[in-house]
Amino acid sequence: MKIELIGGCTKEQLETRIQYVAGAGKLSRFPGNVTEVLESCNDYESNLKLIKRIIKMGHKSIIEHDYLVFALNDVTPIAEQTLIGYRLTTFTVKSRREVDFRTAGFYTPEFKNKDGELHEKNEELKEEYNKHMKMLFNAYGDIVDKGINVEDARFILPYSYHSNFIMGVNGRELEKMIIALRNGKLSKIPDLKEIGDELYKIVKEYIPYLVPNLKKQEDNMKSGFEYLESIEKRPEIKILDKTNMISYTPNSDDVVLESAIMYHYQCSKEKAKEILENMAQKDEKAKEKMMYEIMHKEERRELEQVSFTFQIPISLAVLTHLTRHRMHSLLIPEFLPMWDMKNFITPETIKAKANDIYQEAVKKNMEMAEKFKSLGVNEGDLVYFYLSNQMVNVITTMNARNIQWVTRLRCCNKAQWQIRFIANDIRKQVTEVAPLIGKGLGATCMTDRYCGEGRECCGLIDKLLEADSKNK
């Protein structure tokens, strides 16, 4: 594992970054325009003292003007999934759909016992673990050699494999991240704790205004579910058969249309409803035409006035495809306590050509995880036995604008098959309760007769355009 700050590291860059943050701190209470205030912040030490004083008062918005970019080398997908969950960050991740991962390498923890101390058989356990992980990577390679594309072969990869990505984050979000990784329940997972510690080392050298607050943080291992679990025993985990809409804004189509009338005419809801009814009487397609305009304008705030909540069964292999759409309210089960590892998925291509290799590797992995558990290995170290095929149920609430964006990308034939099925289920279920919104959901070739894939286009757009021309 290696984490690097890849910008703003020189003395001059550091002083400039601190100047911008200090300038933001002075702007609201000092005379002069922005440029004049920034020019007055010309002493590094004074700027640093000012920032620390303002942060201590609780005014942390100023450190959002300090933007850092990190290179994260050879971290696990557990770290990738965790960090992508910070919605005010930006990421570029190495694709497992395009890259052969058989030589990617994997993370090996120092195995601890249930008390969190180094396990007495740590070295023996590491040797057996490393041998087992190599077996899983060999199984991945054998599956690829059977003609299975890497997109499907990756479902056998253990969640210990090395991932690489670039992360952009502002100072305030970075502070939250480091506190959670070093002092919160996430610190129970070894590589997350290591990442928190590495980021803290970088902070001490290049982001000094964060140091005082990070130093005084106390460990907080509470999960927030202590009360619940004291009353109700944890039931057996059941993975859903398909995506299920569990709630939505009633009369979503009319809510969107009325909100557009209310803000455009600055009238009450009652008046907007009256106007909408009058429009429908004059033109039976008035609502459809108006919704089309809303769904194709640059600002689509009206679509944000309605929301839909879904429970979605999804594999770890595909989870980041959903997580990276960060402007929705996503609830993902925590990696601890351990899930039921019997809840896994097998891609159809593997069933057809390499099922024996796949199922044998899955079986051996479950046996090895159970063995380590029986030897008293700390639960936080067992998470690296999760395979990418592990299924979990997640919950998310999306507004209609976000659903439009998600379905534009994920209903495309170029999208990964599992996320495509999920996106199409979402589109169909929204269409059932909000048919006008539903007409604007889906891949752009279906909704707008447009494809942005260029030479990688699947060809459907040509068939649709040809059919359109014949129907004219």
What attributes does this structure have?
single chain; alpha+beta; globular; four-stranded antiparallel beta sheet; 472 residues
The strand line-up of the biggest sheet is 1-2-4-3
Low-confidence stretches: none
Apparent shape: globular
Radius of gyration equals 26 Å
Mean pLDDT: 95
**Secondary-structure class:** alpha+beta
H-E string: EHHHEHEHHEHHHHEHHHEHEHHHEHHHHH
What percent of the residues sit in helical stretches (DSSP H or I)? 40-55%
Distance between the termini: 60 Å
Beta-sheet strand percentage? Answer: 5-15%
Total DSSP E strands: 8
Number of helices: 22
The biggest beta sheet is recorded as:
4 strands, antiparallel
Q: How does this model look, in words?
A:
This protein is α+β, with helices and mostly antiparallel strands and 472 residues long. Among the domains are: 2-73 and 164-226, no CATH class; 250-304, no CATH class; 443-472, no CATH class. Helices cover 51% and strands 11% of the residues. The protein has a four-stranded antiparallel sheet with strand order 1-2-4-3. Strands 5-6-8-7 form a four-stranded antiparallel sheet. The longest helix has 24 residues, at 122-145. It is globular and about 80 Å long.
